[in-house]
Amino acid sequence: xxIANKLTVARIFLIPVFLIFLLVPMDLGxxxxxxxxxxxxxxxxxxxxxxxxxxDWLDGYYARKLHLVTNFGKFLDPxxxxxxxxxAFVSFVGMNQMPAWMVIVILAREFAVTGxxxxxxxxxxxxxxxxxxxxxxxxxxxxxxxxxxxxxxxxLDHFPLHYIILWVAVLMTVISGFDYFYKNRDxxxxxx
Length: 192
Prior knowledge:
By secondary structure, the chain is mainly α. Helices cover 73% and strands 4% of the residues. The protein contains seven helices and two strands; from the N terminus they run H-E-E-H-H-H-H-H-H. It catalyses: a CDP-1,2-diacyl-sn-glycerol + sn-glycerol 3-phosphate = a 1,2-diacyl-sn-glycero-3-phospho-(1'-sn-glycero-3'-phosphate) + CMP + H(+).
């Protein structure tokens, strides 16, 4: 359990804390930025999400810099990302802030790639996150952060950056899913 893997585990433990502040009704007040009225509990959940997202970059940095790359980390890091991102996306659908079909596309890809990873493990391989998948994760996290902070400051000019980045995230999700299956098609075809 090296520092990189501890950061990944910490990210998993931050997920329920993030969800409590996002979903549990608590009257901590609101504040207004331009036309956005942001509940303080949602603002806190946004800060927690940013911290959890930062641990994603930090654990990768330490793993590469200190040569701490492990099969445990290759498996757990993308899983932690999926848990964090999927919990946020599902929450936003429940809050009627995101279109359900977009989140379904994202979830379908995540389940499909996780299934591919499980097949690879049975074949004795570990599929690490690709560069396209890292950009996909970044775009998803950026979209979530913009939604958590009510698209401030871009919403002040009525510029829907949060929605545009969500579209980018969906597109990157689909592209990275095809990329994983294409590059690992031999694992599927040789599996028993």
